[in-house]
From TrEMBL:
PANTHER family: OS04G0577500 PROTEIN, OSJNBA0020J04.13 PROTEIN. This is TatD-related deoxyribonuclease. It comes from Akkermansia muciniphila (strain ATCC BAA-835 / DSM 22959 / JCM 33894 / BCRC 81048 / CCUG 64013 / CIP 107961 / Muc). InterPro entries: Metal_Hydrolase, TatD-like. It comes from the Bacteria. One of its GO terms (molecular function) is hydrolase activity, acting on ester bonds. Pfam families: TatD_DNase.
Length: 223
């Protein structure tokens, strides 16, 4: 499969020659993500602690390991991390914000891109990002909850859309083309249909859309 994927995971990564951003979500899968990146030059690995897997008793002790891994892999990004007010049974927003702040600070200090998850906390996330105006970020699962031109920092960011988000009328039209990315979020079998529908909605060929998304992803990691 040769379709760029701006957000996927190690358990479902597809082989091919297109760029993939493969995100680790906890120490449990960091090693697998690192191995995939080592074997495939088209993979950009990301390492972070997702709010679903944020352990209140352990996450602070895991951060030095995260930094060490990033130091060892100079082209790696930070994430998947973020904020989530949708899922039950996970730590509340105050602890999520503390952990996210540590991730953002690390990404800024090491000059790495960040892949961010957000569910019903976009305003809080946008406010936190104002402290890091130069940070390169992928906002995955973009739902159009904010006006990107005025509510996001002026840094280098991508708004990544999957097949589920495509159900929102007019979503793609609201995204500047140089900010657009497409993702499988761990379901690579959805990519052909996603690219077909997105190309049709944008009035371009699939090949041109592939070139656009690939260029946007490359500009994020090599601006």
């Amino acid at each position: 499969m040769n379709l760029p994927d701006a957000h996927t995971h190690s358990s479902t990564a597809a082989s091919g020659t297109a760029p993939q951003f493969i995100c680790g979500t906890s120490p449990a899968d960091w090693k697998q993500v690192a191995l995939l990146a080592e074997r495939d030059e088209h993979v950009t690995p990301f390492f972070g602690i997702h709010p679903w897997f944020l352990n209140p008793a352990e996450w602070k002790e895991e951060m030095p390991r995260l930094e060490s891994l990033l130091q060892k892999i100079p082209h790696a990004g930070v994430g998947e991390t973020g904020l989530d007010k949708c899922r039950r049974g996970i730590p509340g927003l105050p602890l999520q914000k503390e952990a996210l702040e540590r991730h953002l600070e690390l990404a800024a200090r090491l000059d790495r891109p960040a892949s961010l998850h957000c569910c019903r906390a976009w305003g809080t996330l946008a406010e936190m990002l104002t402290k890091y105006p130069r940070l390169n970020i992928v906002l995955h699962g973009w739902t159009g909850a904010l006006h990107p031109g005025t509510e996001l920092p002026s840094g280098n960011w991508l708004l990544s859309v999957g097949l589920r988000e495509m159900e929102r009328p007019g979503l793609l039209a609201s995204i500047p083309l140089h900010r657009l990315a497409l993702e499988s979020d761990g379901h690579p079998e959805t990519l052909p249909e996603l690219y077909r529908r997105a190309a049709q909605e944008l009035g371009m060929t699939v090949n041109n859309l592939v070139d656009l998304v690939q260029s946007n992803m490359e500009n994020l990691i090599r601006p």
